[in-house]
Amino acid sequence: MPPARKRARTYDPAKIRAAVHAQFGNVREAVRTLTPEQLALPTRLGRWTVRELVAHTGTALGAVSRFVDLPEPVGKDVTLLDWPFANAADADTIADVGRRLAEQNPDLDAHLGDIERRFTEDLARHRGTRLLATGIGPLPLADYLVTRTVELVVHSDDLNAAVPGLGIPYDRQALAAATRLLADALARKAPGASTEVRIPPFAVVQCVEGPRHTRGTPPNVVETDPLTWIRLATGRAQWATALADAKVSASGERADLGGLLPLMA
């Protein structure tokens, strides 16, 4: 008998909406403290400056407003777990948009405030079941909002890495959702049950083909913290480096995830 199909993870829509608002608010609070010198600092994202990265981060919410302005698509042919793998885009185009937004909006706090107000209004007008014509295909608004936690947590981490001492906090629900979505994406990419990936306190998934574990301690175990996992999954950290720095523990012959990462470029 084939193994039972795993049930897709569900997310509480109210908690996700609150998490997106909270993490965006954390970014806004930090942006208000940035000096012109800090805004001009480079980031780990190629040639982007902090100012350009902040402007780009606003598009995490701006995309929601842009999609709700489009006619609602018919049918639903993609799932939430399709998003991490279909998210690759033209990096040069994204960078150009970020630079243009930064040039057009010298007052970044006002810019982010306008985006947040529009986003709040759009959420009030639409149910979570409303389909959005996203770049990867039709997705319910509630599902698309889960992807916003990934965007906001990742770019909060990018900003923290670029500006010493900035310290943008991570909303617990946003961090949890981002961790779980990317963990489930790994299980989708490498289906199986021979390796257990633990990301306490938010996620445990089984993946990788091989002998199925049924009881006791799994023979192949990977464990790391949520931020390290998100960095690995999005290409901000390298598997070998994370192992060498003891940011990841991996035991067992099927515990090497280096060939599966990153999930998102």
Describe the protein's topology.
Elements: H1 13-31, H2 36-39, H3 50-57, H4 59-68, H5 83-86, H6 91-104, H7 108-125, E1 131-134, E2 137-140, H8 141-162, H9 172-189, E3 195-199, E4 203-207, E5 221-224, H10 226-233, H11 239-244, E6 248-251
Parallel strand pairs: 3-5
Antiparallel strand pairs: 1-2, 3-4, 5-6
Helix pairs in contact: 1-7, 1-8, 1-9, 3-6, 3-8, 4-7, 8-9, 9-10
Mean pLDDT: 93
Taken in chain order, the helices and strands follow as HHHHHHHEEHHEEEHHE
What structural class do the secondary elements suggest? alpha+beta
Strand order of the largest sheet: 4-3-5-6
Radius of gyration: 19 Å
> Beta-sheet strand percentage?
5-15%
Can you give me a brief rundown of this structure?
This protein is α+β, with helices and mostly antiparallel strands and 265 residues long.
Structure explained in plain terms:
The chain is an alpha+beta fold and 265 residues long. A hairpin with a 2-residue loop joins strand 1 (131-134) and strand 2. The model has no long low-confidence stretch (mean pLDDT 93). The two termini are 37 Å apart. The strands form two sheets. Strands 4-3-5-6 form a four-stranded mixed beta sheet. Strands 1-2 form a two-stranded antiparallel sheet. Helices cover 49% and strands 10% of the residues. The chain is globular and about 55 Å long.
Features:
265 residues; 10% strand; four-stranded mixed beta sheet; two-stranded antiparallel ribbon
